[in-house]
Amino acid sequence: MRLQPRIAGRRYLRDTTQEIPELRFRLNNFGPISNADIYLKPLTLFVGPNSCGKSYTAMFLHSVFLAHTGEATHWLSHRRRVLVDFRAGLVPAEEKHVSALLAQASKLPPGGSLPVPPEIVQDAADATLANLYGKRLQDALEYSYASSVRDLIAIEKPHFRVDIETPHYAAHLRSYRGKIRVEASTTGAPQVVAQADGGKRGVRVGSDKDSIIIHLPLAAELLEEDAEDEARWRLTQVLERIISGKTWDQLLVECHYLPAARSGILQAHRQLVGYIARMAARAGTERRREIPPYSGVVADFIATIVQLTTEEKGPLYRLTGQIEEKLIGGRIVMQESQEIPYPEIQYEFRDTAIPMHRTSSSVSELAPLFLYLKYIVSPGQVLIIEEPEAHLHPENQRILAQLLVRLVRSNVHVVLTTHSEYLVEQLSSFILLSNVSKKDRVEKYKYGADDFLRPDEVGAYVFSFDPRRKGYKTQQVEVTAEDGISQEEFLRIHEVLYQESFKLRDGLSRQD
Q1: Measuring CA to CA, how many Å separate 216 from each of 5, 50, 90, 118, 193?
Q2: What's the pLDDT tens digit per position in 223-236?
Q3: Which of 3.40.50.300, 3.40.50.1110, 2.60.120.1440, 3.40.50.1980 is the CATH number of 24-70+253-282+296-500?
């Protein structure tokens, strides 16, 4: 089942004061990537030449979050929003263990209890993680890349391998005959206690300060027709729910993706929507025409823009507006249109509304970012931006860096792909500002009191070609409070340019 684009403005229930847990993923022979090893930080940078796999890696990260929060998921609890597919099926070992637990529980007196054996909890963990990364992640990858799993394998390689690690579990994935095979393990499994106190053939969950309590039917209730099968099935559901809540709560995070070439997509989306509307009106009256496939991140972007509503301002509205005025000298607005059935995006400058196709490339490129931040993105969520510096003068890139820092300070987790040394250098300066007092940041350096980045909040990765494996690899860049982000990649390029310039000048001087 393919995932569907999400509706703009949807809010998943999650405590936005929480930090995203430590998340590490490794890619091997995945598209252009021969070897990537990434730790997600509040600000994560992917730096490197064109076509080196930066976007490929960012789209994989987006797919991981989409596997948890996409349309193909099943939501169980309105309170916790726990993800699990009840009908994923039991592995034989799990069914055997659950039956044994019920047999033991049936001998308990009312109110009696016994601990749930760790192997049962582990079986539930294996089943739920295999379902998440064997089925849902495959759906998310095929949606995001608009490709089959086979197409994501590096050229001339038999399969790809992926490792995903959090403090709660590790999942090891491998492509095999167009599918994903999963080996998974969890750590810190919760203590679970089964208590026989009646549930009218149902299974309920409670908890105390030390453990999670599963309330099971009494022996007499289990003797009713089909009651044992139903109790076993419900008990398995509850165990999977417990595992889901313990391992995935902090990854139930909305992840927004702003693709490259946003200005072009923004200006073309009206024609695309108009074409779809005309084809829908003529359905059955003429030969079907296929629309070229879009990647899921582009499809989501278009769907979000089309369905965007400005009725409710988001929590980042004021913050964004302050930087918006600095960057573009006006603001991006949505105006009702007589020509199209949804609001039109315009640039408001000195009380004059200007259509996007008449604005500068920098305004049209920044417009989606401002709209997302003002109406869609919330603290605690992830925002992936491809080439945020596109079409921006270096001075404006400095202002953009300030916006990114303030997003991090607002608990938005930002992932960037970039080619810009100006942007990286300015972000590096904000790391150096972590050594400065709030007073000096304001009075001496003319920034805001909270305009800084701690070194441990930043992860930077350089993508470079590995001739031995014929693919691109990542190298983590050192980030320190004393030096900020290492500029080794850009310094290497500067050195090449300098040597070439020196050689040319020397040659010309000899001709004279």
Answers
A1: 40, 58, 19, 18, 10
A2: 455 566 666 666 66
A3: 3.40.50.300
